[in-house]
Design brief:
Strand order of the largest sheet: 1-2-4-3-5-6-7-8
Strand content: 15-25%
Number of domains: 1
Pfam families: Abhydrolase_1 (PF00561)
Low-confidence stretches: none
Keywords: Hydrolase
Order of helices and strands: EEEHEHEHEHHHHEHEHH
Structural class: alpha/beta
CATH topology: Rossmann fold
GO molecular function, one term: hydrolase activity
CATH superfamily: Alpha/Beta hydrolase fold, catalytic domain
Largest sheet: 8 strands, mixed
Number of helices: 10
Protein name: Alpha/beta hydrolase
InterPro entries: AB_hydrolase_1, AB_hydrolase_fold, AB_hydrolase_sf
């Protein structure tokens, strides 16, 4: 069921609410929507109640006008307010890419909300990605200011799904990413690249599964390095997968998720 609610901070969120049981909050990636999880819904909703929102600045949720209204901290606070609105005291968190940053933020700021934590192809410190991060900021900023949203959406979709057999995935991702207002995407992107939890990652003691694709933008070693700083985390590598693992290897991904959450 697709629902809509206005939070106490004035942000209006559209979200999917499907299934019954323990709650799993699904947090999508930058420039995308809750559709990032379409290939998980059937498998996971047989066992859990799924809540999958569009973040502020994305999809059918509020698109703030001002740059200071964007950021991981604000979006994570939206998720806490959404859980309060739905009277959910504790949930499992699954965060993909930007959504993984929100999951880290929630785990640090609201540990009582978190039961188990799943982090997918992301990092705890986007402000410390070195040359890779600096290059990404420069290239995406230039592309957005010069050409607008569609060429960048096409590039990102092509990088995520380059195989001929993935054409349908590429087209679907391009379709939703290209609909982003340029300012909303830019503000979401820039504030993400300024965010990090630093040494606080060692405070996250919830059971955690970090999923890394073997062909993600950032290497498996980066994920292993931060897993080693978390007292109750383990790493699982998904083979033959790029950044969009929820879509390009859904069977492997769903199996890993279910084994962890039900274990």
């Amino acid at each position: 069921m697709i629902c809509r609610t206005e939070l106490k901070n004035g942000i209006s969120l559209e979200y999917l609410d499907q299934g019954e049981g323990e709650v799993v909050l699904l947090l999508h990636g930058l420039g995308s929507t809750k559709a990032d999880w379409d290939m998980q819904l059937d498998a996971l909703s047989k066992h859990f109640r799924l809540i999958a929102p569009d973040m502020r600045g994305h999809g059918n949720s509020s698109i703030p006008e001002h740059s200071e209204e964007y950021g991981v901290e604000q979006s994570a606070h939206d998720m806490k307010l959404l859980m309060d609105e739905l009277k959910i005291e504790k949930c499992h968190l699954i965060g993909f890419s930007m959504g993984g940053a929100l999951a880290f933020e929630l785990a640090v700021k609201h540990p009582g909300l978190v039961d188990k934590l799943v982090i997918v192809n992301t990092a705890p410190n986007f402000n410390n990605l070195g040359e890779f991060g600096e290059q990404m900021i420069a290239e995406r900023t230039s592309s957005l200011k010069t050409y607008g949203m569609k060429p960048l959406a096409e590039q990102v979709a092509g990088n995520m799904f380059p195989e001929e057999s993935q054409k349908h995935l590429k087209e679907a991702f391009f379709e939703r990413a290209s609909k982003n207002p340029v300012d909303a995407y830019y503000n979401s992107f820039v504030t993400l690249m300024q965010w990090g939890i630093g040494d606080r990652i060692s405070e996250i003691d919830k059971p955690a599964l970090v999923i890394a694709s073997d062909m993600d933008y950032t290497p498996v070693e980066l994920k292993q390095a931060y897993v080693d700083k978390m007292p109750n985390a383990r790493l699982e590598v998904i083979k033959d997968s790029r950044h969009g693992v929820t879509m390009d290897q859904p069977e492997q991904f769903n199996s890993a998720i279910l084994k962890f959450l039900k274990g």
